Amino acid sequence: MKINWGTGIVLAFIGFISFIMYFVIQMNVDEKLSYDLVTEDYYGKELEFQEDLDKQEHAKSLTTDVTWTRTKEGLLISFPLDKDIKDITGKVFLYRPSNKQLDYETTISLSNHNLLIPDKRLVDGRWNISVDWQYHGNSYLYKKEISY
Questions:
Q1: 77 near 132, Cβ under 8 Å?
Q2: What is the pTM for the complete model shown?
Q3: Domain extent at residue 78
Q4: Which long-range contacts (CB under 8 A, 24 or more apart) does 104-112 make?
Q5: Which positions ≥6 away from 121 have C-beta within 8 Å?
Q6: Which of residues 89 and 98 earns the better pLDDT score?
Q7: Shared-domain flag, residues 122 and 53
Q8: Which of 38-52, 91-105, 127-141 has the lowest mean pLDDT?
């Protein structure tokens, strides 16, 4: 059988389209190529962005900021010693960029100006920590990328 130019071009187009369709379908079906958004309510979080910037700017006025250290028991978050622990409220959010199921959020309940997040809740690797706390009507925000 003899193939002319027209038939060759049609076969080349069909082969190319099949090749592209294979990769499009493969990218949509493959589980290891599935990535989640940082947050489901992306646009709602964007509207709160200026508020977060104001909280971070307000935190710069503190004599000492929130600090963290890794201990045998877990992640120890320390609040400023000049603040009364009974009046500190808020929440701590740990975001794991590589796995949405590992994200962790807890309310602040302090003992001796420290909050301990147990080691069993955290795995080694990169985390984004966000401590949103209030003291006497003033709001503060501490954000940091940490390697645990």
A1: no
A2: 0.65
A3: 42-147
A4: 108/133, 110/79, 110/85, 111/85, 112/85
A5: 74, 94, 104
A6: 89
A7: yes
A8: 38-52
